[in-house]
Amino acid sequence: MTTFAPILWIVWSIIVLIMVALHVYRSSLEKDEEDQLFLDDSFDHERNAQAAIVARASRVEPLVKVSHWLVAAISVIVIAYYVRDILIQLEVLH
Questions:
Q1: How many angstroms separate the CA atoms of 63 and 17, rounded?
Q2: Is residue 19 within 8 Å of 64, Cβ to Cβ?
Q3: What pLDDT score does 38 carry?
Q4: I need a labelling partner for 79 at 20 to 30 A (CA). Which of 3, 8, 50, 61 fits?
């Protein structure tokens, strides 16, 4: 049972690294995004460029949400593992 903890921490670390990488990627996509209105048709190229940035960022958003849920789930598993281990050492569970 003692070999389970390192595997659990490795899986947790990998998922956290993926989440951080997704955040960095999304931030790099959104760094050129500007909040402005284009009222004149002469700025169509700017409007199209901004729409492309928003489209790429919105494609990454579901992956970011999934990574958040995975980190939360694996964190709960890690906490439950250690609570169970403490209860076993205190001989509350057998």
A1: 13
A2: yes
A3: 56
A4: 61
Helices (H), 1-94: 4-30, 44-89
- Alpha-carbon 80 to chain mean position: 21
Q: Identify whether the C-beta of residue 64 lies closer than 8 Å to the C-beta of residue 22.
A: yes
Q: Both ends of the chain: CA-CA distance in Å? A: 14
Look up tokens 């460029």; give the residue: 49
Per the document, the length of the chain is 94
For the chain, which residues make up each domain, given as ranges? 1-30+63-94
Which value, to the nearest 10 degrees, does the dihedral of the CA atoms of residues 80, 82, 87, 89 take?
Answer: 160
Q: What is the pLDDT of residue 39?
A: 57
* pLDDT tens sequence across 3-62: 888 999 999 999 999 999 999 998 888 776 666 655 566 667 777 777 787 888 889 999
In the block, tokens 């947790």 appear at 12
